[in-house]
Design goal:
Layout: H1 15-26, H2 28-43, H3 47-69, H4 78-86, H5 88-125, H6 131-147, H7 150-177, H8 199-208, H9 226-256, H10 261-267, H11 272-280, H12 283-317, H13 336-355, H14 360-393, H15 400-423, H16 425-429, H17 433-460, H18 462-467, H19 473-483
Helix pairs in contact: 1-7, 1-9, 1-12, 2-8, 2-10, 2-12, 3-8, 3-9, 3-14, 3-15, 4-5, 4-14, 5-6, 5-12, 5-13, 5-14, 5-17, 6-12, 6-13, 7-9, 7-12, 8-15, 11-12, 12-13, 14-15, 14-17
C-alpha cells in the first residue's frame, strides 16, 4: 500500500461514538414498542428479568471477548477471533456467517422501515405511500450515510439514539411520577417469575434484542485508542441495553398494572406503548413516538450498514472477496464500493419481496432477519469457544478468570441461548415449520460453505490462505505501545 492509497479515517471514534453505533443497531425504541408487548404476552410480567438475564450472559461473554481484543488487532471482527482460536477453516466459515448475519439483519429491517413509515404518514398526515417506495427511499438514505465519513455517521446516530431514548425515558418518568396504575410493584422480579412457562420464549426474544452489540471490534481501525476504547464501548453497550430494556418493560407493566398488562397487550400489542404514553404524557407524545420509531429504524440500518461495509472491506483486503470491495473513498475515507454492493443487494431483495406481494413485516423483516440473528448468536458462541484456545497458545499476562473461566461460562450460557432461540423460533417468525426449518438450516449451511471455500483457497491460492486473518503490521505497533502487551504478533491456528 502506497502513501497515496486512501485508508479508513484513523483515530476518529471515541468510546461514546462506538457505543452509539452498537446501541443504535439494537434499535431500543423499536425493540420496546414492537417486541416487548409480545414478550409480555408469552412470559407474563416476568419479561423484565429475561432482558436482565440476557444482559448478564452477554456481559460474561464480553469479558473474554474484550480481553482478546487487546491482543487481536485485525479489523475482521468475529472471524479473526475465531480464526485465532479454532483455525483458518473455521475462520472462513465464520466470515461467511458474519456476512450472512450482518447483511440479513440490515436488509430485513427495510421491510419494517417501509411498513412503519407508511403507517406513520397515513396516521399523521393522511398520505398513503406504498411501503416499497418508502423502503427504497430508506435504502438511498442509508447508502448516503454510509458513503459519508464515519464521524458523520457517528454524529447522526448520536442524535437519533438520544431522541429515541428520550421518548422512552419521558414515558418512564411520567409513569413513575403518577405511581403507575395501582402503585409501583416489584412483582416482575420475584424469583418465581423467571421459571414461568413462557419464559424460554421470552429469553429467546431478549437475546435477539441485543443483536449487533459485538460490532465494537469492527471499528478498531477508526478508534482513537482501540486497546481501551473497544472494551469500554462493549461494556457500556451491554450494560445500557440490559438495564434499559428491563427498566422500560418494568415501567410499562406499572403503567397498566401487574394484573392488567397482559390483557392490554393481548388486546392491542402494537399500541401498548403508544396508548400508555398518550395517557400518561399526552397525545402529542404518542405522535412523536410514531415518528421516532422511523428514526430508530434509520439509526439501526445505518449502524448495521457501516458494520457490514467494514466486514466486506476486511475480507476484500485479504483476497477472500473481490478486491474492488476494498476500495476506500479518498475524501470521506469510507468503504464506499462495499456500500454500493450492499445497497444494490438491498434494492434487489426489497423489489423481489414487493413483486411477490410479500408482507413487509411478517415476511421481509422476519424471514430475512431471523437467519441473520441466528448467525450472530452462533458467532458469539464460536468466539467464546475460541478465547481459551487462543490464550493457551500465546504468551500473555491475563488472568485465568478472563481467559478460561468467563469464556467457559459464556460458552455454556450462549449454547443454551442458541438452543432457546432455535426451539422457540416460531415465536419470532410466526411462520410454518417448513419455513422455520429453512431459516435455521441457512446458518449451518453458510458455515459449511465457508469450510469448503477454505479448502479451495488453500489448494488454489495458498498465499491468500496463509495471510487470512493475519495481524496487519501497520496496526500492531501503535496498539502494542498502548497496552504494553508482549504478543503483538500472535500465531494463528492452522488446523
Amino acid at each position: 500500500m502506497t502513501d497515496a492509497t486512501p485508508t479508513l479515517r484513523r483515530g476518529t471514534l471515541g468510546t461514546a461514538d462506538i457505543a452509539f453505533f452498537v446501541v443504535s443497531a439494537a434499535a431500543p425504541l423499536t425493540v420496546m414498542a414492537g417486541v416487548a408487548p409480545l414478550a409480555l404476552l408469552v412470559g407474563g410480567i416476568g419479561a423484565p428479568a429475561a432482558y436482565l438475564a440476557a444482559g448478564v450472559t452477554l456481559a460474561v461473554f464480553a469479558v473474554g471477548f474484550t480481553t482478546m481484543s487487546r491482543h487481536v488487532r485485525h479489523g475482521g471482527g468475529f472471524y479473526a477471533y475465531i480464526t485465532r482460536g479454532l483455525g483458518r477453516p473455521a475462520g472462513f466459515g465464520a466470515a461467511l456467517l458474519a456476512l450472512l448475519g450482518y447483511l440479513a439483519m440490515n436488509i430485513g429491517v427495510y421491510g419494517l422501515l417501509g411498513s412503519a413509515t407508511h403507517d406513520t404518514l397515513q396516521s399523521l398526515v393522511g398520505w398513503n405511500i406504498p411501503w416499497p417506495v418508502l423502503a427504497l427511499v430508506g435504502v438511498a438514505v442509508i447508502w448516503f450515510g454510509g458513503y459519508r465519513s464515519i464521524d458523520f455517521g457517528a454524529k447522526v446516530l448520536g442524535v437519533l439514539l438520544l431522541a429515541e431514548t428520550a421518548i422512552l425515558v419521558l414515558l418512564a418518568v411520567a409513569v413513575l411520577a403518577k405511581g403507575g396504575a395501582h402503585g409501583l410493584s416489584l412483582g416482575a422480579f420475584a424469583p418465581g417469575r423467571i421459571s414461568a412457562g413462557g419464559m424460554p420464549g421470552v429469553l429467546a426474544m431478549a437475546f435477539a434484542a441485543f443483536t449487533g452489540f459485538e460490532s465494537t471490534v469492527i471499528y478498531r481501525r477508526e478508534a482513537k485508542d482501540p486497546a481501551r476504547t473497544i472494551p469500554r464501548a462493549t461494556y457500556i453497550a451491554v450494560a445500557f441495553l440490559g438495564l434499559f430494556y428491563a427498566f422500560i418493560v418494568w415501567t410499562i407493566i406499572q403503567a397498566y398494572g401487574d394484573k392488567e398488562v397482559v390483557a392490554a397487550a393481548a388486546k392491542d400489542p402494537t399500541g401498548l406503548f403508544f396508548s400508555a404514553i398518550g395517557s400518561y404524557v399526552g397525545p402529542w407524545a404518542a405522535d412523536a413516538m410514531h415518528v421516532l420509531i422511523v428514526t430508530s429504524l434509520l439509526a439501526s440500518l445505518l449502524a448495521f450498514h457501516n458494520a457490514t461495509n467494514r466486514y466486506g472491506l476486511a475480507m476484500a483486503e485479504e483476497g477472500v472477496l473481490p478486491a474492488a470491495l476494498g476500495r476506500i473513498h479518498p475524501r470521506h475515507r469510507s468503504p464506499y464500493v462495499a456500500g454500493v454492493a450492499q445497497t444494490v443487494l438491498a434494492v434487489v431483495v426489497v423489489v423481489a419481496f414487493a413483486a411477490a406481494g410479500a408482507d413487509p413485516y411478517t415476511q421481509l423483516l422476519l424471514w430475512v432477519n431471523t437467519p441473520g440473528m441466528l448467525a450472530l448468536v452462533a458467532l458469539q458462541l464460536l468466539a467464546a469457544v475460541a478465547v481459551p484456545l487462543y490464550f493457551r497458545r500465546v504468551a500473555h499476562g491475563e488472568g485465568v478468570l478472563r481467559t478460561v473461566v468467563a469464556p467457559a461460562v459464556a460458552t455454556l450460557l450462549l449454547g443454551a441461548a442458541l438452543w432457546l432461540v432455535v426451539a422457540n423460533i416460531g415465536l419470532l417468525t410466526g411462520a410454518s415449520d417448513a419455513v422455520n426449518l429453512t431459516l435455521i438450516l441457512l446458518v449451518p449451511c453458510a458455515f459449511a460453505a465457508g469450510l469448503g471455500y477454505a479448502l479451495r483457497v488453500r489448494a488454489s491460492r495458498p498465499g491468500v490462505y496463509a495471510r487470512f486473518a493475519a495481524e496487519p503490521a501497520s496496526e500492531s505497533a501503535p496498539d502494542a505501545e498502548a497496552d504494553a502487551e508482549t504478543d503483538a504478533a500472535a500465531p494463528v491456528a492452522t488446523s
